[in-house]
């Protein structure tokens, strides 16, 4: 089994080794092992902030890009209405915990599928929080409509493809990326768009991550991209709003490969060849940050954390050691409830 690496994987390694085990090694949508199915399901759980961005992405994919493809005017008011409807449908899906129903899968549920952290961990978001979130979604979409120069640049292309998964081998690891929107230019030339919906300026990490998309297009022969300069990289922050074009060359690729080499070496040391064995969980350390543990989606299937971490507490360090049971075994900790065990993904 090949190891997969992405910028998300690198962030997990820095946050908590056990998250790497559950997300990169254990999670598998078609496994019969309850632990692996549960790991996959929990990997779909989102914070309400991450979900907001997901709704914005889906609204652009479902209601904006089809208009660009058919060269029709985008009906922004209707886009906003449809985005709110989509958000309400997904919130209801998560609130009813339909993602835990037998036979339910992301593929079958399509755009309706949603699993929110608050619903999974019995701290559900309020209707007021839902309202604020949907207002932010609406604001992001209106902001996109007002980025007239950028929209004019993207409109009228012969080729659009959203959510493009692309990968290439490097240092014995499969490097992965998902491009929010890929649009065509001249032969062998493409535009890449990365949608952001938060109110913060771009960082050097964002530029490095965007350069990965161009690097992958150059490495994957099917795209016939001969050099970095043939890829336009557009970072579109819908929360500000702001548009930034990142210009890259081979020197940027050199910096990227140096970063990836160091990160993939750490991943190979940590995960070996990426093969799954439940007992290997013991080889993965707990986080040193209590907040990472508190808000981790995998806390239900993770072993007892460090004594000073109190998941239920809002304090960063608890002086009260959590009760432990020396006879607790991994199979007992992974004894999932009947509903989880019945999930067919």
Note down, in words, how this protein is organized:
- The protein is of the alpha/beta class.
- The chain has helices at about 5-15, 15-25, 35-45, 50-70, 75-95, 105-110, 115-120, 125-145, 150-155, 205-220, 250-270, 290-295, 330-335, 340, and strands at about 5, 160-170, 175-185, 190-195, 230-235, 240-245.
- Helix 10 (about 205-220) links the parallel strand 4 and strand 5.
- The radius of gyration is 21 Å and the shape is globular.
- The protein starts with a strand and ends with a helix.
Mean pLDDT: 86
What level of helicity do the residues show?
A: 40-55%
Estimated share of beta-strand residues: 5-15%
* Cα radius of gyration in angstroms: 21 Å
- What does the main sheet amount to? 6 strands, mixed
CATH-defined architecture of the domain at 160-271: Alpha-Beta Complex
- Per the CATH scheme, the topology name of the domain at 160-271 is Lambda Exonuclease, Chain A
Q: Name the CATH class of the domain at 160-271.
A: Alpha Beta
What is the approximate shape? Answer: globular
Contiguous helical run count = 14
- Name the poorly predicted regions: 308-345
Distance between the termini: 21 Å
Instruction: Report the strand count.
Output: 6
Q: Assign the structural class, choosing from mainly alpha, mainly beta, alpha/beta, alpha+beta, or little secondary structure.
A: alpha/beta
- Name the helix and strand elements from N-terminus to C-terminus, one letter apiece: EHHHHHHHHHEEEHEEHHHH
